[in-house]
Design goal:
One of its GO terms (molecular function) is ligase activity. Its EC number is 6.2.1.n2. This is Amino acid--[acyl-carrier-protein] ligase. By secondary structure, the chain is α+β, with helices and mostly antiparallel strands. Helices cover about 40% and strands about 25% of the residues. The protein has 11 helices and 12 strands. Helix 2 crosses helix 10.
Amino acid sequence: MDAKTFDAKSLLDDLFDNGVLFDSGIDGLYGRSGDFEEVIERFEAMVLREGEKDGATRIHFPPGMSRPALEKSGYMKSFPQLAGCVHSFMGGESEHAELLGKMATGDDWTEMQESTGIAMTPAACYPLYPTVAARGPVPDEGLLFALSSYCFRHEPSKDPARMQLFRMREYVRIGTAEQVSAFRESWLKRGRAMIEALDLPMEVDAANDPFFGRGGKMMAASQREQGLKFELLIPVASLKKPTACLSFNYHQDHFGETWGLKFADGSTCHSGCVGFGLERLAIALFRHHGMDVKRWPANVREALWSA
């Protein structure tokens, strides 16, 4: 595709015009067609088929988690700009009448809502660590989980690959530093092979998370220097700035220390994860192979529909 038309607007227009996505009036919040959902289902099956031989425990978390747990995780220190919390009306009849009055006059009625204690899940693995910690010591061989969740990040954009509500499929390894490093290296190879099978252009590069503020710049530089995060990048909305569709992360002992994840001998566990951005991968497939899935290359359809 010509670099001049390889942009977010042309892609979003194509997805809308062909009925793959449906405009909701809010950037990053879209309806999805049956074909779009089927592509995600088939890719998820492909991911699960690749990982099932490792014997991971499957857990599906809801899109909301405990707000105190999110706070304890350190997320608000690093990514306050992405976080969202759930609020609800908790008043009586008189307060309800006041709320309706505010709506009628166009005034802000949301100030009459109170926190429910629920935060939107920012990544599929965040609810996992307190769940595992509550079970007691981690066995010597470590633990492996296959996770799925809808996630929320407040970053409205015209780029259809950067949604505010999206699904994430993750594998998470909890164990020794050596166990986690081996897990990540294995999935770096597997991830590349899976994307190659889908005939998508890609590159793997060192990366950093979007840490907030001036202090965040130092954290981002440290993350890159230590090689704690790699991303598999696919050109989706831009040729110059490809989209991260898979991420490979080594948390060191951050979550182990935060949640008291320990082995029976008292030593602190390390953790790492590989994350698949399902909507991003689906959009990459529509971008590169066309809006009609029946006309996608035979090898791509076989890779997906044979899963």
